[in-house]
Design a protein that fits this description.
By secondary structure, the protein is mostly helical. It has one domain (about 5-380): Hydantoin permease (Orthogonal Bundle). It is about 75% helix and about 5% strand. The chain has helices spanning about 5-15, 20-30, 35-45, 50-80, 80-90, 100-130, 140-150, 155-175, 180-205, 210-215, 225-240, 245-250, 260-290, 300-310, 315-350, 350-375, 400-430, 430-440, 440-465, 470-479, and strands spanning about 380-390, 390-400. Strands 1-2 form a two-stranded antiparallel sheet. A hairpin with a 2-residue loop joins strand 1 (about 380-390) and strand 2 (about 390-400). Bound molecules: tryptophan (TRP). Tryptophan binds next to helix 2, helix 3, helix 6, helix 11 and helix 15. The site of tryptophan has 17 residues, from helix 2, helix 3, helix 6, helix 11 and helix 15.
């Protein structure tokens, strides 16, 4: 291997987070993003509330945390981009270098996710000037709806905001992630948190707080479908940034002495807290204004402006909120593309700047699919189902390009990546290596091992099969 190709990766290996705290912040910066504030409330609304939330929380605890530990552990031990890391680790434990495919899958998944993520982050960007000009002051629910509808129906406007967000992301990535990123998250995360608390006070004032809470926390299992379980699981991966090597790359900068278990639990807890707070803000506003919880991807863009438009200092808080949402999305988007960047630099021997420009252009192009799926191509949908003599198993129904990309990445690629991580860390990596990395007491180690060996893989597999209707199918045959 020529030297120039490896310089950066070795530099990366030597580079380390300044402290355990900064790693936790950066991983939290990656985890906390649109997934918590935009996606969690809207998919909770689409899936009927409490029961979905409960399954999601269970997935975070039983699958998310153990797999996060596994992914960080692999990253720290491998110390490179995800593809190289997996190849090196496979060699170390005497397995096939085909494990590099896991890294590949991640590079592609991150690329696809960023293509639509940046369009949604573009909506948040667009809301910053709209908020600060007081466009929402005194509007009722219908009028706010119309403003949102106007934004997404205009492909040019969406394209401009999408472009701006891609430029912001690639700008930071081109300069190297560490310097700016650590600082940004240190200040921005606590601020975002504070604003959510202020919004909760507003939500309490709506008079429908109780109703919002019971929607979020009172499980009604009759509302759960197999697709709902699949999205709860997919979202656990999405929200914790798992299954595609982002946290693996971050883990590669982690000092040896840091406890992976404690860091993972801290990140997962903060991430979950932000999502639940967002839900506690949004649903009371939904119910107080007779809005539809299942309104889909536009949910927070319709509810929050309503709150801000009708509270004192709403223009100020509203502007601030969408700025912070953009920052939350920013610290996440960087981690979505970082695996692709480190990998391309090494493979094509390009500088970080060139790589960022090229990948930025490619992601931007790909993102146009999502841009148009909300307007010009909104009628272009696909439906997939497996039909057998025992019935029809719906996989996708009237999915736009955006729905399809989201489904493919969150519900299939991330759980698949997570499954492979769990299998590698649990079954193939030598136990002495994993024990050496995790350094937790033997009881906790056995619990972790049990979770990554059996529980996490089995759950992923069962949910997959179930979503494909295969379980129902088999049950039918047996009866
Ligand atoms: N977790 C982020 C969010 O919730 C999105 C994200 C960043 C992500 N990096 C990732 C999702 C890696 C999957 C994989 O908004």
């Amino acid at each position: 291997m020529p030297d120039s190709a490896s310089v950066d990766t070795y530099a990366v290996k030597k580079e380390q987070w300044s402290s355990r705290f900064t790693f936790i912040l950066a991983a939290t910066g990656s985890a906390v993003g649109l997934g918590n504030i935009w996606k969690f409330p809207y998919i909770t609304g689409e899936n009927g509330g409490g029961a979905f939330v409960l399954i999601y929380l269970f997935c975070i605890a039983a699958i998310g945390i153990p797999i996060m530990m596994a992914e960080i552990m692999l990253g720290r031990r491998g110390g490179h981009d995800p593809v190289t890391t997996m190849k090196l680790l496979a060699k170390e434990s005497g397995h096939s270098s085909s494990w590099g495919i896991l890294g590949w899958l991640g590079v592609i998944a991150g690329f696809l996710i960023l293509s639509y993520y940046s369009v949604i982050a573009g909506w948040a960007l667009a809301y910053v000037p709209m908020m600060s000009l007081g466009n929402f002051s005194g509007l009722d629910a219908q009028e706010v709806n119309a403003v949102f509808g106007e934004l997404v129906s205009n492909p040019i406007t969406l394209m401009i905001w999408h472009s701006l967000f891609i430029i912001m992301t690639m700008f930071v990535v081109a300069r190297g992630v560490r310097g700016g990123l650590e600082k940004a998250v240190t200040y921005l995360m606590p601020l975002l948190f504070m604003l959510l608390i202020i919004l909760i006070l507003y939500a309490i004032g709506t008079g429908a707080f109780q109703q919002g809470l019971s929607y979020l926390f009172n499980p009604d299992f009759s509302k759960i479908t197999t697709e709902g379980v699949l999205s709860a699981m997919g979202h656990a991966f999405f929200t914790l940034s798992l299954g595609m090597g982002a946290i693996m790359v971050y883990g590669s900068y982690l000092p040896k002495k840091t406890s992976i278990a404690q860091a993972s639990i801290a990140v997962a807890m903060m991430d979950t807290l932000v999502a639940l707070l967002a839900g506690m803000v949004i649903f009371p506003i939904v119910f107080a204004n007779g809005l539809e919880p299942g309104a889909g991807p536009g949910l927070i863009f319709k509810t929050l402006p309503l709150a801000f438009g009708n509270m004192s200092y709403g223009t100020l808080f509203g502007t601030l909120f969408f700025i912070l949402l953009v920052f939350a999305a920013w610290t996440s988007s960087i981690s979505l593309i970082e695996p692709a960047v480190t990998w391309s630099m090494k493979t094509f021997q390009l500088s970080r700047i060139k790589t960022s420009v090229i990948l930025g252009l490619l992601v931007w192009l790909m993102g146009l699919m999502t841009v148009f799926s909300f307007n010009l191509a909104s009628d272009f949908t696909i439906s997939t189902s497996i039909s057998t003599q025992y019935g029809e198993f719906v996989i996708l129904k009237d999915a736009t390009a955006f729905d399809f990309l989201d489904y493919l990445t969150s519900n299939i690629m991330l759980p698949l990546g997570g499954l492979m991580i769990a299998i590698y860390a649990g079954w193939l990596m030598k136990k002495e290596f994993s024990a050496e990395e995790l350094k937790i007491n033997p009881l906790w180690f056995s619990i972790w091992l049990f979770l990554v060996r059996y529980i996490a893989p089995l759950m992923v597999i069962i949910v997959f099969l179930n979503a494909l209707g295969i379980v129902a199918f088999v049950r039918h045959i047996i009866n």
